[in-house]
Batch of 2 targets.
Target 1
Amino acid sequence: MLLKLLCVVSISFFHITEAEDPYRFFNWNVTYGDIYPLGVRQTGILINGQFPGPDIHSVTNDNLIINVFNSLNESFLLSWNGIQERRNSFEDGVFGTTCPIPPGKNFTYILQVKDQIGSFYYFPSLSLHKAAGGFGGIRILSRPRIPVPFPDPDGDYTVLIGDWYKSNHTTLKAHLDRGKKLPIPDGVLINGRGPNGVSFNVEQGKTYRLRISNVGLEHSLNFRIQNHKLKLVEVEGTHTLQTSYSSLDVHVGQSYSVLVTADQPAQDYYIVASTRFTSKVITTTGLLRYSNSQGPVSGPPPGGPTIQIDWSLNQARSIRTNLTASGPRPNPQGSYHYGLINTTKTIILSSSAGQVNGKQRYAINSVSYVAPDTPLKLADYFNISGVFRVGSISDRPTGGGIYLDTSVLQADYRSFVEIVFQNDEVIVQSYHLDGYSFFVVGMDGGQWTPDNRKQYNLRDAVARCTTQVYPKSWTAIYVALDNVGMWNLRSEFWARQYLGQQFYLRVYTTSTSIRDEFPIPKNALLCGKANGRHTRPL
């Protein structure tokens, strides 16, 4: 109670959030604990004793006050995949923006889900902590008077899927630190459980919302339910055209909402998640259990696509924005005509893999990111030299060999940018941009050229924060840079991110107005070269 009172007192002085919007308080204790997701004992990362962690339930514009106490023996951070942290990248929870929480200490995140709806998740961003748990679902409901383009479901479930290793996160980290690649995962989990370890209860004739997020380390997964259709209704904060699918490819880092109607004979049915684009298909199952079930599951689990690229590409192109539906505000999503805006800059990003000093590294435009001892955002705020330099990564592929640097690319506030992800490798890639939602305007095979703009979807492309790039292919996005800050653009293939396939986008303005960017939080942790500095007086 005292802790909550202290939070309330501190927030009352904290001018960055709006008094009329509700506050939701969370007190989380992060600990190690024994978990057995694949039948063997592992050291997991638990939040309030839970694996996965507790869901965050919120409504558009809510202020989320999340006090995180780190009871681990190592530093820890949480990041909020898809939460845009408007004007406030200090709270993003990646090492480029936020100092880690030391062992035995706490930090209170002060977030606002400003002008957002939809399905997202949080995860531990340091080291290989993500391989031990510490993740959970985030749902942002529409405000009561904002219309939603489907009836209220009879139930609402978080479904966290992902590949998984039996090895502890420390073992996986040591493997990467020795310059090696990670082996093939040992299994796939649904909500932290292995085969048939989780079930979802439904009543015949009723409709349920499933919020599916791929929180794994590497692999795209195909999700399906035996004899049931998945009606897609929302992707990472965008209401979509309501297309029904027999199965859905969910690439690592992505989130989808589907409606499932219990319209089959009353029994149990398999829920299946299986790896895509892998030589060995790894599969797990859960159960959809009718309340009046007359029997167990029957037959084998339904099969799904395995290595077919065109199948996945065609499905991705079919996912489009519902232009007449409201988003977080009453006006239709289609009222923002992104296709009529002239782009001010084109950025082309190409990944590569190779050896540096005899160790495996990954890069974007030949630069393999190395984290300094000071978060970039703090160095920027306090004008600390020697931490990073703007322009340390090119906005075009250089064609040279991989080298190490603290890569920061600058772009102007309020510019409208085209970013092309060029994938010359033979694996599916997945990229995420913190702080933003972008329009996925095109994707196809081969090398991108300006002529490919003729095939862009400039009307109803889906807006999201994580996109896939198929092997030997490209994906193009449009993004309005309306959120000042230091924002992480990374591979969601976590070993690649850890070994350098990321950089920071510095969205810059000379303005010092709080209308453009909030000042540093009063409770910000300080580390590295920022130690001994001062935030702001209470």
Target 2
Amino acid sequence: MNLGWWWRLFAGALAGFLFFHGFAATETAPNYSFMYDATSASTLSYYDYIIVGGGTAGCPLAATLSQNATVLLLERGGSPYGNPNITKMASFGAALSDLSRSSPSQRFISEDGVINARARVLGGGSCINAGFYTRASDEYIKQAGWDGRLVNESYQWVEKSVAFEPSLGQWQSAVRDGLLEAGVMPSNGFTYDHIYGTKVGGTIFDQQGNRHTAADLLEHANPSGLTVFLHASVHKILFAIKGKRRPKAHGVVFRDATGAKHKAYLKQGSKNEIIISAGALGSPQLLMLSGVGPAQHLKSHDITVVLDQPLVGQGMSDNPMNAVFIPSPLPVEVSLIQVVGITHFGSYIEAASGENFAGGASSSPAVEYMNNLDETTFRGGFILEKVMGPISTGHLELRTRNPNDNPSVTFNYFKDPQDLQRCVQGIQTIEKIIESKAFFRFRYEFLSWPILLNMTANAPLNFLPKHYNPSMPLEVFCKDTVMTIWHYHGGCQVGKVVDLDYKVLGVDALRVIDGSTFNDSPGTNPQATVMMLGRYVGVKILSERLAN
């Protein structure tokens, strides 16, 4: 048997799929009369609310607040509509390989040596993810201190616009049935709810394969109450300090694509606020750039300290993901995440398949393996496990004072032994799925489990040194092959940097509303809850505004 050929097939497929998820969007762009390029912004303007970051939380938040207030939404990226790479699910494979400054994705490499990405587009991460839509657990909602009824209403508000039931093909069906054979019981059918067992979740891809993103939620905005500026890079929050009991946020400085400087200020009014929704990297980064963060670190970058807040940038976590590629003797459907196994031991099992995962992988570390491969050789799929939580945490620091530069971030994957044990049990469950009767026809008998693991362990998945061989324990496999599933969070956590209403502790008129506030990643995949949170907090803010 020619295992060299299988290795080339595998390395190309794995790199093409896992490093370079592209994205799609609704093909007909909505006519947003309130959306402009930041070059058209005046040098000085005034609003009731200024939101930094038009992402997965920022879009529903802006749409909600615009109903009864004037809102400025500043997005550093462009529009998801009309981009040739933003079309169909079937073309999934271009966005993360685009390393240009205009890309909807900005690559970063954590200090751990894992390749990662952050969104740079209106709609945020919902534009560059695998589309899976699933809610947080009831326990998560209770621990967060959220109002269960308003949470449910907010999820439903999101779901009317962007969530769909997927059509399962043969391969995804085999994974589902394999999960049940592996003991991830019971079968929960199709549901958005987070329930132990195996389920089919929602997707933001419709039946025609068009992606629906958080940007689509701006259709619910009041056009006369909202202004959206694209390619607007916010450099700092401005604070009023003189004569104040404590610093009060009252404006922002942003630059357009030409580098021209603009200032936007809050109108007079005790209820008016600036809200940062720039994501788990962008939000703590912007707080630090604005003088809110660890004093010594800020001084080392010649940043004037507004508030010594050592917990900004702390508690950074990224759920470790490990995958196994299974070449298939049969054609398989192109599918992204549709099925999930929610285990009692703390690992989530998901899968994706397709014949050509390599589209647009021009910058892949594995590109040398892909040059001479025919598209039909990329036949098969991935079964992956994601560790819940996680328990392990790291931190974020500034590299420069330029908000367009990536900060330095360390996630400390598997620092806590429980995270590592959950990975091991997840990989053992993947083996049971692959060995199941349900999955049998989608694997080659001569590619044994040790061979499949070894192929994965030798693939250029990250920049970590390789140690694994089949005689070693799965703990080594987990550490060697760790990747991201893009669910990183933390840096502005509730109870540490913000209070239960997402108000930044120690200053006035400033909130953070996005995944940077999470202590754990919600559900199996977070985007549903991040969109819900934007709507949820927006409704609460408006009700407080109208109460007086």
